[in-house]
Amino acid sequence: MAELRRDPLSGNWAVVGYTKVKKGDINICPFCPGNEGLTPHAIREFRDPEGTWLVRCFPAASPVFVIEVSESKRAEGLYDKMGNVGAHELVVENRSHTKTLSTFGEDEFVAVIDMYQDRIVDLKKDKRFKYVQVFRNHGELAGSYIFHPHSHVLATPVMPHRLDLELANSKTHFLQKERCLLCDIVSQEMRQQKRVVLASTNFLAFCPFASRFPVEVWILPVFHSDSFESLEDQKVKREFAALFLAVMRQIERVTSSYTIVVHSSPNMAKEVYGVEEVTVSEYFHWHIEILPKDFTSSKYKREDEFYTTISSLPEEAAALLRQD
């Protein structure tokens, strides 16, 4: 049974003892139309007027986090551990196996956005989950070995480390200046025009000042908003889709592998962060990070930001290494 263990030195949580289900015939794509029986039963589907599915969401066959597990928080001396409670879902974004984001139409991508928002809203109803993260790996360098367009939705009982840092720095900035940090970044990037990739009335795409990857791009609303799922106005949503797809056409010109991550506000923020002088909605600003991968990039496969050790526990690994 997999469990979450906290590293007391870094504060990071890792999933240990994770078991991956063996894959079937590698020549058969389980996400293609006609192969629905190769995936778990759909949680949610969007269909056209004829009843044909357009976007599907179902539980991952090898989930990192499991909804049926108890939190079971406990200690082992000074160490903390808990059950890997949560959810791990897959979103199949299109019927076409060979379609990439640069070739999506606006209507097709708006349907994907709707599915992301639907799953975030639904999973946030479970108050055991502290964060719901949507991420998409494309290409082998990003750790994806199924070409069919798909993405992951993770609900976790602890905050990913990077989100913790973003929240802490955003809150510090707000308490010092009474302004949102990303709102200030948007203002400076639009004023300087040095790193802007594309801009529209309500959205900005730019290469961040301290980029972690070559050609890294962030996309965010120029108006203040803390949650991605609150983007409801259909006209504004289509504007976002158009800008996002235009950026992806440029990204896919320079790389075939990338990770895309939606950074939205956490769940149960007040319980996670205790008594606050301000609310998360005041200082956090949702954004999307596009992280292109090549052979010069840092080589991590996931953007769920939880290290996952497959099968063996540290205790079993130590016993193996002690053998003569």
Classified in CATH, the superfamily is HIT-like
Arithmetic mean pLDDT? 88
Radius of gyration: 20 Å
Total count of helical runs of at least 4 residues = 7
Approximately how much beta-strand content do the residues carry? 25-35%
The helix/strand class is alpha+beta
The CATH class: Alpha Beta
What's the helical proportion of residues?
25-40%
Number of domains: 1
- The dominant shape is globular
**What are the low-pLDDT stretches, counting only 5+ consecutive residues below 50?**
295-303
Spell out the helices and strands N to C: EEEEEEEHEEHHEEEHEHHEEH
Number of strands: 15
Record the strand order, biggest sheet.
3-4-7-9-8-13-14-12-11-10
| Cα-to-Cα separation, first versus last residue | 28 Å
CATH topology description: HIT family, subunit A
Task: Indicate the CATH architecture.
Answer: 2-Layer Sandwich
**Largest β sheet strand count, sense and barrel closure:** 10 strands, antiparallel
Provide an overview of this structure.
The chain is α+β, with helices and mostly antiparallel strands and 324 residues long. It has one domain: HIT-like (HIT family, subunit A, 2-Layer Sandwich). Helices cover 27% and strands 25% of the residues. A hairpin with a 5-residue loop joins strand 3 and strand 4 (53-59). The longest helix is centred in the C-terminal third of the chain and has 21 residues, at 234-254.
